[in-house]
């Protein structure tokens, strides 16, 4: 049986998902929701010198709007609901829904 504190923490995590920002030479990436693969995906979009640029928690209803705000500022905004969690609200048809596992490919330089 879960304790009251554990139930409260679970409810707060569901209501306030994590967000994280990454910066690199090739750009910026912002993630809302699950972060298991965020560093490797950020490196794909931001370059080899990608570094974390901050983390926060945002009210679930504001995650999509925060993603749009970061995207308007030039970042790649990625929403990743945690497994079993509710989807984030649609941003008026301005999102792409993708499965949890996506194959990412990047061209390698010609030199060895």
Apparent shape:
globular
| N/C terminus separation | 56 Å
Low-confidence stretches: none
* Lateral strand order in the biggest sheet: 3-1-2-4
* pLDDT averaged over residues: 82
Oligomer: single chain
Number of helices: 3
Percentage beta strand: 15-25%
Q: Main β-sheet, in a few words?
A: 4 strands, mixed
DSSP helix fraction: 25-40%
* DSSP, total strands: 4
Tell me the Rg in angstroms.
16 Å
Sheet/helix structural class: alpha+beta
Order of helices and strands: HEEHEHE
Please characterize this protein's 3D structure.
It is built from three helices and four strands, in the order αββαβαβ. With 112 residues, it is α+β, with helices and mostly antiparallel strands. It has a domain at 4-80. A four-stranded mixed beta sheet has the order 3-1-2-4, sandwiched between helices. Strand 1 and strand 2 form a beta hairpin. The relative contact order is 0.19. The model has no long low-confidence stretch (mean pLDDT 82).
Summed up, what is this model?
Helix content is 28%, strand content 23%. It is built from 3 helices and 4 strands, in the order H-E-E-H-E-H-E.
Main traits of this protein?
alpha+beta; 28% helix; 4 strands; four-stranded mixed β-sheet; 112 residues
What is the topological layout?
Blueprint: H1 4-15, E1 18-24, E2 27-33, H2 38-46, E3 51-57, H3 63-72, E4 76-80
Parallel strand pairs: 2-4
Antiparallel strand pairs: 1-2, 1-3
């Amino acid at each position: 049986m879960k304790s009251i504190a554990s139930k409260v923490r679970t409810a707060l995590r569901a209501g306030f998902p994590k967000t994280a920002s990454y910066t690199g030479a090739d750009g910026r990436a912002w993630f809302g929701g699950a972060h298991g693969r965020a560093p490797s995906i950020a490196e794909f979009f931001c370059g080899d010198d990608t570094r974390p640029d901050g983390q926060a928690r945002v009210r679930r209803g504001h995650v999509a709007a925060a993603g749009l705000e970061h995207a308007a500022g030039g970042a790649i905004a990625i929403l990743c609901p945690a497994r079993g969690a509710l989807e984030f609200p649609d941003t008026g048809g301005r999102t792409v829904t993708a499965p949890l596992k996506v194959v990412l490919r990047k061209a390698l330089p010609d030199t060895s």
